[in-house]
Specification:
The complex is a heterodimer of chains A (456) and B (228). Chain A is of the alpha+beta class and 456 residues long. Chain A has nine helices and twelve strands. The longest helix of chain A is centred in the middle third of the chain and has 51 residues. Chain B is α/β, with parallel strands linked by helices. Chain B is built from eight helices and eleven strands. A five-stranded parallel sheet of chain B has the order 2-1-3-4-5, with helices on both faces. In chain B, strands 6-7-8-9 form a four-stranded antiparallel sheet, with helices on one face. Classes of the chains: A alpha+beta (456), B alpha/beta (228). At the A-B interface, helix 5, helix 7 and helix 8 of A face helix 1 and helix 8 of B.
């Protein structure tokens, strides 16, 4: 934009300068030529009248009225050439062409450089008692100087204009484009999830309507997404009441399981299992809807990560699952949302139990630098195929391995929630090959304590 | 415990009320019911129960108000039922005087475990320590009495157990996890807000200047301790 302005200005001013120079040059030269010719003809007429065979050519020359810078020269035959000052203008300075022309009886004039200066040399044949030619050299140095000065003025002017145009262009484009770049930043922000982003009101009428419709769109989008998220949240809430009744009722049935016929016991077990899964699904949906509504907030606590992970693994997984700790991390304190990290570990461990043939190892490892650490959960399964590693964290993605999971259909929200929770902590999660061949889910968390939540 | 222990459940959804009553009765509790706040207060005033279970979302007088009203006259253990654990409802319920909370849908067996923990008697680590003095603060575990500058302070059962726990090792720092375990019967993953809000409530009763506590002090990043 700035370059376009400057280029436009350059072209325009260059054209303008060249044209001005050309025209001025033409006008000035023509004027000078005309006046010089006039004077030269007048002088030639006088010389013609005074020139007799006995007249002193010198005197005639001295009596001629010449304008400044003009030097007359009288040539009588080949040898008698009289000039006021031969140094200034001598017979050698007359171009052959002009000489031939005048000797031929015609008048003529030419532009000639004499002693480095531009001159107009005029030649007029004299027809009187004596055959002679009158020449006059008129210096154009002054005109040349004027033209040069003009040239300098024009070029400096043009340069200044180009510079000014560039600056103006830069300023104007910034001014003109600022609302547009603001709009594009706002659009990116909205795409990035900051749905409450709006553009400032614009003074320019066209931009004002652009800003207004942009904000209107953003508002509509925001309320729509909020409505969707609220809907999911309300549905989940509404499901809580029947789930409460179901949970309590199933418990009553389980309390009296021994009194039930065998077939009813089997049905009760199915009911109880699926009720648990249903409850988990509702919880996950509610959690997800909070992420979607942008309402998810961290409640940070500083914990000894080794203790936390150890407790979580002991709490969540039956049997003795080793938690390997890199010695340097033994005393590492990390700021985390305990509830969320617990859910992350619960999902990963559960996943390993259900689909990975059991947890083989949990490890606390150094991160990519001193400011991060990793928690890895390894299983005994077949690992996750490379092409599924990215999508496995998508909602309701179960991968092809899901097909082998038999009757257990899983829920498909667990890993996407893991990703959401970890990202909320400013961390990352991925899956890779474990040491023993199974899958290895790794979460990397920043170690900096945000000290966001102060207890008591 | 169990037989003869009466629980008042305040819940407007009849189906939930019935199912929860059946399950609680299986656990051996005696269950009284109320389907709104006013009824609950009348029932409790007429014949106070040993435990109260209140759903926060009630038509008319809401659960918080029922809780505050009961607290004015009684130190009965109160369990709040909230919709979600991560909302402000939990803190608001605890500040209204609840001792613990559960989120819907909860297992009645879990509720029973919570109630049993709340009904436990305050115990002193050192049986010989029958009379503990912290400056102007006097704790008598066996009598369930706390005096501040000679004047008796009314604490709820949970507040009292929390204070006695801290008083069992004066000067020692108790982590939230330890307090959750000893006072509420939760493990490592209990909600630390239970401790924080109860500590806050305790301070308003035993400290001269609750904003600058002298006895029940916070040890940043570690927990709480009781000092002279």
């Amino acid at each position: 934009m700035t370059a376009t302005f400057a280029l436009g200005a350059l072209l325009f001013t260059a054209l303008f300068a060249v044209a001005t120079l050309g025209i001025t040059r033409q006008v000035l030269l023509t004027q000078r030529e005309d006046s010089a010719l006039q004077v030269a003809f007048t002088n030639a007429g006088r010389v013609q009248r005074q020139l007799t065979p006995e007249a002193a050519v010198n005197e005639i020359l001295a009596n001629l009225s010449t304008t400044e810078g003009s030097r007359p020269l009288i040539r009588v035959g080949e040898d008698d050439v009289q000039s006021i000052n031969v140094e200034d203008f001598g017979p050698d300075d007359i171009p052959d062409e002009l000489l031939a022309l005048v000797e031929d009886g015609r008048t003529g004039h030419m532009l000639v450089t004499i002693r480095g200066e531009p001159n107009l040399v005029i030649g007029i044949p004299l027809v009187g008692s004596v055959q002679a030619e009158y020449f006059e050299a008129v210096s154009l140095a002054e005109t040349q100087n004027t033209l040069e000065t003009l040239q300098v003025i024009l070029f400096v002017g043009a340069g200044t204009i180009i510079l000014l145009a560039g600056v103006l262009g830069w300023w104007a484009s910034r001014r003109a484009l600022a609302p547009l770049s603001e709009a594009s930043e706002a659009a990116e922000a909205i795409a990035g999830g900051r749905l409450d982003t709006r553009i400032d009101a614009q003074a320019d009428r066209d931009l004002a309507s652009l800003a207004a419709s942009f904000n209107e769109m953003a508002g509509a989008l925001e309320s729509r997404i909020e409505r969707d998220a609220r809907f999911a949240s309300e549905v989940s809430h509404e499901l809580r009441s029947p789930l409460m009744t179901l949970t309590a009722s199933v418990e009553v049935l389980e309390n009296n399981r021994d009194d039930l016929p065998e077939r009813a016991q089997t049905a009760l077990d199915l009911l109880a299992d699926d009720l648990e899964r249903f409850k988990q699904l509702v919880e996950d949906l509610l959690e997800i809807s909070r992420f979607d509504a942008g309402a998810a907030q961290l409640a940070l606590d500083e914990v000894l990560i080794v203790e936390f992970v150890g407790q979580a693994v002991g709490f969540l997984v039956p049997g003795n699952v080793p938690v390997d700790v890199e010695p340097v991390l033994a005393g590492a304190i990390v700021s985390i949302d305990k509830r969320r990290l617990m859910q992350v570990l619960s999902n990963l461990l559960d996943n390993a139990e259900k689909y990975g043939g059991g947890v083989s190892r949990v490890a606390i490892l150094p991160g990519r630098d001193d400011h991060h650490l990793r928690i890895a959960v390894e299983d005994n399964g077949d690992g996750v195929p490379a092409d599924e590693r990215a999508v496995i964290f998508d909602r309701f993605s179960r991968g092809s391995a899901g097909g082998r999971r038999g009757a257990d259909t899983g829920v498909g929200l667990g890993l996407s929630l893991v990703a959401e929770h970890v990202q909320l902590h400013g961390g990352e999660v991925w899956v890779e090959d474990g040491v023993a061949g199974g899958a290895r889910f790794v979460i990397e968390l920043p170690r900096e304590s945000a000290r966001a939540l102060e207890h008591a | 415990m169990g037989v003869g222990t009466r629980i008042l459940t305040v819940e407007d959804d009849e189906r939930i009320r019935t199912a929860v009553r059946l399950a609680l009765e299986d656990e051996g509790w005696q269950v009284e019911e109320a389907d709104n706040g006013e009824d609950a207060l009348n029932t409790f005033t007429a014949a106070p129960t040993d435990v109260v279970l209140i759903d926060i979302m009630l038509p008319g007088i809401d659960g918080f108000e029922v809780c505050r009203s009961i607290r004015r006259t009684s130190d009965v253990p109160i369990v709040m039922v909230t919709a979600r654990a991560d909302t402000h409802d939990v803190v608001a319920g605890l500040e209204a005087g609840a001792d613990d909370y559960l989120t819907k849908p909860f297992a009645p067996k879990e509720l029973s475990a919570r109630i049993r923990a709340l009904l436990r008697r305050a115990r002193s680590a050192d049986p010989a320590a029958t009379h503990l003095q912290f400056g102007d603060l006097e704790v008598v575990p066996d009598e369930g009495v706390v005096r501040k500058a000679g004047e008796e302070v009314h604490l709820t059962k949970t507040e009292f157990r929390l204070l006695v726990e801290l008083a069992s090792s004066p000067g020692r720092v108790f982590s939230r996890e330890v307090l959750l375990e000893r006072v509420w019967g939760y493990g490592y993953f209990g909600d630390g807000r239970l401790v924080d809000v109860h500590i806050r409530r305790l301070r308003t009763k035993v400290e001269s200047d609750p904003a600058n506590p002298r006895h029940v002090v916070t040890v940043r990043g570690l927990g709480y301790k009781l000092q002279t």
